[in-house]
Amino acid sequence: MKKRIIAWAVLLSVCAAALGLWCSAAVGKTARTLPCEDEGLILSITTFDGKSESKPFLKCFGHTWIGLDNRTGHTVYLKDRAIPDGEMVTFSVWAVSGLSGLLFDLEPCYIANYGRYTGRLSLSTNIGEEQLKVIEDYMEQHDKWTVNKNCSYWSVHLWNAVVGEEGCPEDPGFCLHARKN
């Protein structure tokens, strides 16, 4: 009798665990999706947790950056930088010796040349051209990297300044963490 009770308890536990994993996987996939057209200005925030690059005794804390993809049919300008139709620019703050601060287009080079940022996650949404001014103003006021205001802090706060609360799905992962900063 004890063996049957134990067998049923184990079977019930396995079924409950499988159901829980299945449900949480389905929720995560839909909760991280924002409506985004393939035209216009597409703002993206991309994050990498550093796990794939960490080694014993050497912890990689990851990186977060913003991307702006121009699909408007004409050139747009961000500060004094022309972004032709069909092109994308990335930017974030870095702690590079001698260049600590806002830098452009480093991330695509790291990805293409060194295979970096494996396992990155991103979130994209359309923005209007009038929101370029919000990005420019943020860049003017926040152009430095510091320990307390690193790339993640900088990118998340810029994202929230441009997109607002409606740009974050009610998911306890990516964006909820972003709002806590």
UniProtKB/TrEMBL annotation:
Signal is among the record's keywords: yes
Range of residues in the leader sequence: 1-25
Superkingdom of origin organism: Bacteria
Designated name of the protein: DUF4105 domain-containing protein
Species assigned in the record: Faecalibacterium prausnitzii
UniProt keywords, alphabetically: Signal
